[in-house]
Design a protein that fits this description.
The protein is α+β, with helices and mostly antiparallel strands. Among the domains are: about 1-40 and about 75-120 and about 345-420, no CATH class; about 195-270, no CATH class. The protein has 11 helices and 13 strands. The strands form 3 sheets. Strands 7, 8, 9, 10, 11, 12 and 13 form a 7-stranded mixed sheet that branches. The longest helix has 30 residues, at about 1-30.
Amino acid sequence: MGVLITIVAFLVLITIVVVVHEGGHYTLAKLSGIRVDEFFVGFGPRVVSFRRGDTEYGIRALPVGGFVRMPGMLGLEGEADAGERNFYRATVPRRLATIAAGVIFNLVFGALCLTVVAAQASPSYVPAGEPTARAGLVNGDVILSIGGSTISYASPAATDDDFYAAVQRSQGGPVAVTYQGTDGSDHTTTITPELVVYAYAQPSSFPSNLSGSPLVVTSVNGHAVGTGDPAGILGNGGAVTVSGFVEGDNTDHFGPVQLSGVEDGDGSSSAQAAAAWRIGYGAQLPGAGLFPALRDGFGAIPAYAVALGQVIGQLFVHPAQASQQFSGPVGIAAAAGTSVQQGWVQYLSLIGVISLALGFFNVLPIPFLDGGRLLFILIEAVRRRRIDPIRQAIAIGVSLAFIILLVVLITINDINHLSGGVH
C-alpha cells in the first residue's frame, strides 16, 4: 500500500508542476498568436490523447517532464509550417515571453503554494527516535520553557530563535524542559541534547551519500561527545574523526570518517559544515495572516535562488558532495510518498518546492532548457540573423544527452541514499 501511495503521490505531483510549466508556454503562445500543435505530459509513446482545435493534448508513458510543441521552433526542414503563426515568425518580445512563461508560471505557482502553507496553523510534532521522544513527549505537546528560558510563540521566527538559543545554552548537558501535554496539564522532564552536524561539502574521505544529511555525532577522535561549544568540540575548524548515526535513525550508523571546517550554526548558513545542539522538536506554528503569508511564500523565490547559486558554486569545488543536494525521480517520489502521508500541508509544501526547483532548473543556460532557448533568441536578436538550425539542433541534442546522464547519476545516488549506502 505504501508503494502505491508513493507512486500515486509522485505522479500527481509531477503532473501538476509540469502542467503549470507547459501551461505557461501554452498560454503565452496563444496570446502571442503562435500555433500550438501538441501539449503533452510525459515523454515516449502516447498513453491517451485528444484533439481540440489546433492542439493535441495528452499523456505519454514516461512521467518525467512534458512539452509544448510549436511549429517552426527550430526552422528545420520537415517541421510543421503554420505560416504567420510559426514560432519564429513572432516578434522577439513575444518569443521571449512564450519561452520565459514556463519558468515564471512555476515560480509564481510555487510561491502561491508556499503562501497557502504559511497561512496554515500546524501542531507541534515529535520525530521518532529524537531526544524529546525518548523523554516521553508526543505530537501535540507544547514546550513552554527550556532550562528556565520561556519559549515565545509570538511568531515562527521568535520561536525558532528562542529554541535555538535555549538549547545552545545547555552546551549539551541535561536540561530541564517544561511542556504542556495534550491533556492540558504541565509536565517537567530532563532532556540531553544531541550534537548534530549538517555536512554540505567535505573531503573525498567523507561518504558522499551522507553529505547534506543531518548527522548525530556520538564520538570525536575516539572519545564520547562531551559538553561545550559545538564547533569547539569538533576541532574549531580543524580536521577531526567522528562517528555517529543519521538524525532520526539511530540504526543508520556512519564512521569513523574525517570532518573539517565545522562552524556553529543551525544548518541554514552556507558553511561547508555547521554544528548545533538539538533536542528534536517541531514547534507548533500559528497560521500567518495574508500579507505575512505572501511575504513568506514569495520570499522563497529569492531564498531558493541564493541556495541554488550556492550549490552550483559548490559543484565546482566539491562536485561529488554538492551533487548530493539534488534529487531525481526516485528521491522526489520518496519525498512525495512521505509528505502525502504526513498531511496535505506537507504535500502542498513539497509541490511548491518542486515547482520552484523546476523553474530555476529550466532557466539555466543549457540549450535543451528554456534558459538555453532564451539565450538563442537574444543572440539572434543581437546578430539580426538566425542561428544555423542544424547547429542549434545538435546543441540541443548534446545537452539533452547530458541531462539524461545527470538524471541517471542522481537517480543512482537517490537509490544508494534510500538503501542506506555503504558507510
